[in-house]
């Protein structure tokens, strides 16, 4: 067995690998860029070595830097995690030449399956069904249009070396093919250093289902069932689960057999994932094979009891699988939610900044698991993927797992930057998700107009108002005690309030409180809520029993009111005395400033191009500029016809969120 493993990665996956290595008694080495000097994985590892500046192209993607770190620390094996060099055949070869073991498949398997064009050819050789398409790299836009027409719209443009949704575009028209090809090529070249793009048929009503495989060097190959990964945005997975509600035992066996056949075809060794696209009639087609550990591997671990990282290490060390296919069963249900530093209300654009408050829900062995690489006070950088954490919840069945995830999300508190926790809660509570009636288009279909305040507003705000009223009564009692109006002994109280719930045109209702902190009854109109809770002021997570049932919400003091969040529904509530309410009704609403004459950067990032000049007439839908953040290119378009009055910044500028790029007449 290895004595020391260097982890050629960062963040949550580096921390995850360290935990398994530590359990096995193996020393670990972390590597870090200048941006990660104070990161969690550096603190967790036994040793840590700097490998260069913040940009990944100068640190985590530089093979020579990794080799120098290996030589310095004497590591005898390297685990690449996922992303960066994880599927880089040259890296695997360089390690072999240096006499260091790569904890993953051989370089030939990586190269073959990492090339989407070659991998499909191999799948065909192995008898695995593939999606119809044109497997050669597209030369230019004219050829792309001709190919798309021959295949038949809609189509997908995909980077041959792609992954994680990068270098991938959907196109339903000639114009979308031309525009998408440029973006796909640019993104592929930036992310993978390979600008080859091919085209294949887009499967209608698709689901994204993948099979986890394990293979050793002794000829043993097994699968560990499927994961449902259809909840995606821009081809980036958001929520995953195992098993899939769409897959029955016969389909699981058939998909598993195909995945095993493909792994054997390329002499695969290690953990890997074979991804399939599945249509409404349960026909499945090979999509790609990921020759690495998947982000969503925890859901498989929870339902099978198999530590995939441990087995990757053991297989790399030459050990034989002690698991047979008959040993693998899927017990219960697991769901994973990816917590991202992004702003759902700004089109899910990435967010950067400091985690002023970071409070994940408490972990419970086998029930609630949080894989993260951050801590309170940590900086989320613009240089890397925006994932903050993975929240994984297990239940005896799907309904129990969903309910557990809803509670865990309500108990996950983050402040200091934008995040997608509210959005995740909303999706988990969505009737279509709960019923299992969804495909890869679910988010586009249900959130076609984005995720705005209208979706976050509760249909019935009574519970939110009651929580805010409880908090206000607690605050009033505390202030009265400070002023000497209460003797400090526990005693019942009675307060009458008027609550204003909402923004510009709030809902108004009378509320009444009886009882004492810890046990209060709040009446809001005809609804009555009995609270039992140990909540105190300043705690953003409100854990209570309400009318005898457990409940978790978030309540935060916001100016003169309270922001209350529960099950993805959020509302601002002011709770006032009758006199203060009468005065509040007379206060005018302050309109926000008009910024419609500006093109503002929707996120922090690098301005990579400006397509217009001052004095130029632009049309609605025309591309104006592009901003790169978190390794993704974001194109900004005109929302109406206008004339450019001024260009405020030039390409190469580092932009802050809401910084003006263009001004219109």
Q: Can you give a write-up of this model?
A:
With 665 residues, the protein is α+β, with helices and mostly antiparallel strands. An eight-stranded antiparallel β-sheet has the order 14-13-10-11-12-15-22-20, with helices on both faces. The protein has an eight-stranded antiparallel β-barrel with strand order 24-25-26-27-28-29-30-31, surrounded by four helices. A five-stranded parallel β-sheet has the order 3-2-1-4-5. The radius of gyration is 27 Å and the shape is globular.
In brief, what are we looking at here?
The chain has 665 residues and is of the alpha+beta class.
CATH topology name of the largest domain, in short, is: D-amino Acid Aminotransferase, Chain A, domain 1
In round numbers, the mean pLDDT is 93
**Largest beta-sheet characterization:** 8 strands, antiparallel
- Let me know the CATH homologous superfamily of the largest domain: ATP-grasp fold, B domain
Count of individual domains = 5
* Low-confidence runs: none
Strand numbers in spatial order across the main sheet: 14-13-10-11-12-15-22-20
Shape by Cα distribution? globular
Helicity, in percent? 25-40%
Number of alpha- plus pi-helical segments? 18
Give the N-to-C terminal Cα separation: 69 Å
Tell me the β content.
25-35%
Which CATH C-level class of the largest domain is it?
Alpha Beta
Number of strands: 39
Give the CATH architecture of the largest domain: 2-Layer Sandwich
The structure class reads alpha+beta
Radius of gyration from the alpha-carbon trace, in angstroms: 27 Å
